[in-house]
């Protein structure tokens, strides 16, 4: 079994998601918190320009900028395109089987009531073992399995072959919530503990199956020709993280108060409900299938 | 009694506070919703530049730009300074006893759990009568009475002599919440109903006293020399709108988990707890005295 040499914790990929920004601040002040005997922990703020403005990004979403195609395209010169190339040198390079970092945890928050969630966009076996361990330590953690339309995933967490994104919420953009801050820190500590056990051959078991929400499709708000939305997330869904939708479930309510219902015959779960940053992406929520997968 | 001729409803003063933005959209599509027989209702988006970016402001906070001194200073040329002068021509001019608008309701939202709140920064008798009526219709409405350091108030709602700000929350920036949207609309309808009764001499009573939270001081987060905060709002306060603080109440918790307590002998109430936009203003919460005032 190949040992793990270096684990990266990254925060501030979105400059207005303060949980990650401040956890990295905390580790900078006291690196011993994330130090382990049998591997090195590396941590960094990824998007300092956006952090300074307290905005999601400067020119474009850094967490959609790590495709191999984009990283190799010298014509892309926005702030985040340049930044992605720099980060790729530190943490990647992407596509390498021998990257500088063996595992990455990228820290995010969401205005959606997702509680403690992992977003995993790889089938990498090590990543799923970490997820299995983490869910055993903290059963309240939910896992969103992202199967993109393409193999060329654009997330920060996709730079090395192993890693995931932590999403916690609901937290408004530009706000630090103490409860979620400490819960996210707990998740990081468990991840680091996993690798200490892993490197010293002390892991007690191999995880074989795990419950996930696998993405099926994104749906947008009903919109007018002016681009403005005509309907809002239905109040029934607002305070929920992983909301079960069956045919006839309320979904939206128009500005005039008319309810719009879920028409699908298949039961799906709504995730990332009413995430502020997705309004401009044309996403009101993600729909997912709940299933147990073999890992 | 002088009749009311024109009431203004303004939204989008902060471009990422969508409740007001979309209520104005709704009224634009169906003006009859805010039409009354005995006065004219005027509604507008105040900061379209910030709305397009979905940011609080373009150059500076429009809701801190309506001082008489600033409006009369031709050297101030930022986007919001220019905008303030234009809006002042439509709704004011400020300082006039005969402004174009008799009463203004400016619509805001906050990431703080303020529920349905009015912010009132004037001693104007008519304004307080409307507040009394509204609180009678909707007892869940709380009133924050703002006594500034100066008479030259800078809020949009200070342009004509009569008016107030509606603040609803918690709502993340860039998010529309259906429940708060409809509750805010109800508040507006009651305000318009008041003026219809007022203009037709059908008001049944005069309000003589009212419970308010009167601002005492603002307090900042504990911060390091780098400007970053060292402590977060204590979880006990996080989900509260008007939180009673007595000596020894928890106030903050440091990133390391150490609790910081309220040291004041006088009982005060915390408002605007953990409002995202106030981090840059150096405000973690406002402290206020709860009292009943004669109106």
Count of DSSP helices of chain A? 7
Low-confidence runs of at least 5 consecutive residues of chain A: none
- Look at the structure and name the CATH superfamily of the largest domain in chain A: Zn peptidases
How are strands sequenced across the largest beta sheet of chain A? 2-1-3-6-4-5-7-13-12-9
Which chain pair shows the most residues in contact? A-B, 35 and 35 residues
What number of structural domains do the residues of chain A give? 2
Helix content of chain A: 25-40%
- Please identify the structural class of chain A as seen in this structure: alpha/beta
Number of strands of chain A: 13
Output the radius of gyration of chain A: 19 Å
Query: In angstroms, what separates the terminal alpha carbons of chain A?
Result: 17 Å
Describe this protein with a few key phrases.
homodimer; 295 residues; alpha/beta; Aminopeptidase; 2 domains; ten-stranded mixed beta sheet; three-stranded antiparallel beta sheet; 7 helices; 13 strands; 25% strand
Describe the structure.
The structure is a homodimer of 295-residue chains. Chain A is α/β, with parallel strands linked by helices. Chain A folds into two domains: 202 residues, Aminopeptidase (3-Layer(aba) Sandwich); 79 residues. Chain A is built from seven helices and 13 strands. Chain A has a ten-stranded mixed beta sheet with strand order 2-1-3-6-4-5-7-13-12-9. In chain A, helix 1 packs across helix 6 and helix 5 crosses helix 6. The longest helix of chain A has 22 residues. The radius of gyration of chain A is 19 Å and the shape is globular. Chain A starts with 5 loop residues before the first strand and ends with a strand. Chains A and B meet through helix 1 and helix 6 of A and helix 1 and helix 6 of B.
């Amino acid at each position: 079994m190949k040992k793990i040499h270096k684990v990266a914790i990254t925060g501030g990929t979105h400059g207005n998601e303060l949980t990650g920004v401040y956890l990295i601040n905390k580790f900078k002040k006291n690196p011993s918190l994330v130090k382990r005997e049998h591997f090195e922990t590396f941590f960094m703020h990824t998007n300092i320009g956006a952090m300074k403005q307290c905005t999601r990004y400067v020119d474009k979403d850094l967490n959609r900028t790590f495709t191999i195609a984009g990283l190799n395209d010298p014509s892309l010169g926005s702030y985040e395109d340049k930044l992605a190339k720099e980060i790729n040198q530190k943490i990647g390079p992407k596509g390498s089987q021998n990257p500088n970092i063996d595992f990455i945890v990228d820290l995010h928050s969401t205005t959606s009531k997702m509680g403690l969630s992992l977003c995993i966009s790889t089938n990498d076996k090590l990543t799923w073992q970490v997820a299995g361990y983490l869910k055993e330590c903290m059963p309240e953690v939910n896992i969103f399995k992202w199967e993109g339309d393409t193999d060329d995933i654009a997330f920060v967490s996709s730079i090395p072959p192993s890693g995931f994104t932590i999403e916690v919420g609901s937290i408004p953009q530009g706000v630090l919530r103490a409860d979620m801050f400490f819960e996210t820190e707990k998740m990081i500590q468990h991840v680091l503990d996993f690798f200490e056990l892993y490197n010293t051959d002390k892991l007690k078991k191999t995880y074989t199956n795990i419950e996930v929400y696998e993405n099926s499709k994104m749906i947008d708000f009903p919109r007018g020709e002016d681009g403005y939305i005509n309907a809002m997330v239905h109040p029934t869904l607002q305070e929920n993280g992983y909301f079960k939708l069956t045919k006839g479930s309320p979904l939206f309510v128009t500005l005039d108060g008319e309810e719009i219902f879920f028409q699908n015959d298949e039961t799906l779960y709504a995730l990332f409900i009413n995430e502020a940053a997705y309004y401009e992406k044309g996403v009101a929520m993600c729909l997912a299938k709940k299933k147990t997968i073999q890992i």
